[in-house]
Each structure stands twice: as C-alpha cells, then as structure tokens.
Amino acid sequence: MLINPKYQVVKYWPLQKSPKIKYLTYGVIPFIYPTHVEVDVLFLILLMFFVFKMKNLTETFPLYQFQNLSRFSKLLHFVTTRFGGVSIAPYNSLNLGLHTADNTAHVLQNRALLANKIGIENDKILYASQVHSGDVKIIDDEAVADGILKTNPETDAMVTHIPGICLMVMVADCVPVLFFDPVKNVIAVIHAGWRGTVQKIVSNTIAAMKTNYGSNPSNLIAAIGPSIGPCCYEVGEEVKNCVADSFGTIQGYMIKQKESEKYNFDLWHSNHKQLIDKGLRTENIETAGICTKCNSDTYYSSRASGGITGRFAAGLCILKT
User: Fold this and answer.
1) What is the CATH number of the domain that holds 213?
2) Are 150 and 124 in contact (CB under 8 A)?
3) Mean pLDDT across the stretch 177-198?
4) Which residues contact 258 (CB under 8 A, 6 or more apart)?
5) Residues 199, 113: one domain?
6) Residue 234: which domain range?
7) Contact of 258 with 292, CB cutoff 8 Å
8) Which of 149, 225, 263, 320 could serve as 254's disulfide partner, Cβ 3.0–4.6 Å?
9) 154 and 18 housed in the same domain
10) CB-facing half-sphere around the CA of 223: CA atoms within 13 A
11) What is the mean pLDDT of the chain?
C-alpha cells in the first residue's frame, strides 16, 4: 500500500479525503450558518474560501511512499503524480520528462519545484535517459568524479551507495521498481517497460548489486510502483513471442481476453516473479497495484492519452547523516 505520511495530507489507496478536510467540510459550515442577508454574503465568501482550501489540500503537491521502505529513516523515497507543477494540458501539471514535447522551461521548473519539495539540491537528482534496455549503470565515486551528475546516463537502471544522490526513474505506464539493501546500504531504481521486462532488467539489477556491492538478495527490500495493470495492457504478437522466448512460457505472464484472441501482458507478475526467482523474500516485496491507465487523472498514462502525455517519477535517496 502506498501512503503519504509526511506531505500535507495523509492519503491511502484508493484516494480518500483526510480527517482535516472532513473537519473543514462538516465542522465549520454549521457553526457559521447564516440568518441574515449580510451573513449570507459572508457565508458564501467563507464557503468559497474553504472549497479553495480543500482543493489545495488535495491537489497541491502529493508525494506517496511505500510502507516497506518507509521503515528506514536513512532513506528518502517518493512517487509523484500529475499534481503540483506548471505544465499545461496535455502535460498538466507536474511533468518531469524533458524528452516529451512539453515546454522545456515548464519541465525544468517542475523539476525545481520537486527538488525544493523533497529538500534535495537539483544537481544531486539524477535522471537517466531511458532507452527501454536491460542495462544497469553503477553510480559510484568514479562515475561522480567523471561528471555523471551533470549528464543523463543512457540506461534503464541505476545503483548507488553514495548518500545525497537521488536516483530517479520516469514513467507513464512502464513499471518503476525501487530497491534498498539495508545491510550494504545500497539503493537502485529501475524502469521496466515491456522491453526491459523481457530483457530481465530486474534480474540484471540484482546481479549488479551482488557483483558490485556484495548484496544478498534475501536482504533486499523491493517496491513495484504504479504502472499499467494486467487489466489494460493489451499487446500484440511481437510482445507475446518475446515473452515466450524470454521466460520460456506465456503461462502466468499473459492473460487471454475472454471474448477475443488477444492477450494482456501482466508486467506486475513478470517483474515480481523475477524478484522471487532471484532470492527476494515475499514479505520484502510491496506492489502498489495501481493501474496508471485506470487512474490517468492522477498519473500520466501513455495508453490512456494516445501517447501524448508527461512523465511522473519514483525517486530514492540515501540521506546524509
């Protein structure tokens, strides 16, 4: 379950009003119930004010967290939404993707707003140039010395042990996956679209953490973020064949539609199974279970928008002590 325990209003899935909003709605209005014309005007003004406040409370800048990663005080992690930025439709409003056709100045302002919100300097937030690969990039001291923080490395997964660097993954239906190794103090972020999934980018990232940092998969904490669900991700023969080639079967990975010969690809199961197969414990894996296409009013969804949309992000950072 994703939660928002520290940013303005607590929110659970599905989205609900907080007790504070309930107080504004039901606690104040009866108290100022009007009896005269003059008071009617005051009542309407105050009512408009409270409606505005309720809108701000629910939509200003929500950031969500996973329960399993929230247990670690040394971590900062979050999932953004569409809300809180300056981009206009169809990218409204917190689009973080510079590779979209959005106004570049708007995207840069959105990134600055996010940096200010999470308290991390903008030049310490690392966005990759995602290419739908199975590649993993190690962000170590040598990479930082070589200036990687001033670039957008071409990769779909990043791993680091360095405090103060916030690794980011941008999505609009693809699966964001976050890793934390509390023993070795290492983090990773993954962008897993269908191509990355069949290239087993999750497995590749676990292997990179083992090779470079000695991580034991049984210690890893994993979170699978909002992404297109098996309810909506219809694919063609190309994807179906790639799934069969990669996993040796489509059983469990593909879901046949009831009244047609078409299939839906279950990205959640496909990436979850890689985690289990590589040795993660079931209790250490949390899946948001939120379909971005079904919830395109809250998250960007390429499928829901016909391919013209922004990007939300999942971020992970080891805090400096």
Assistant:
1) 3.60.140.10
2) no
3) 98
4) none
5) yes
6) 61-318
7) no
8) 263
9) no
10) 29
11) 86
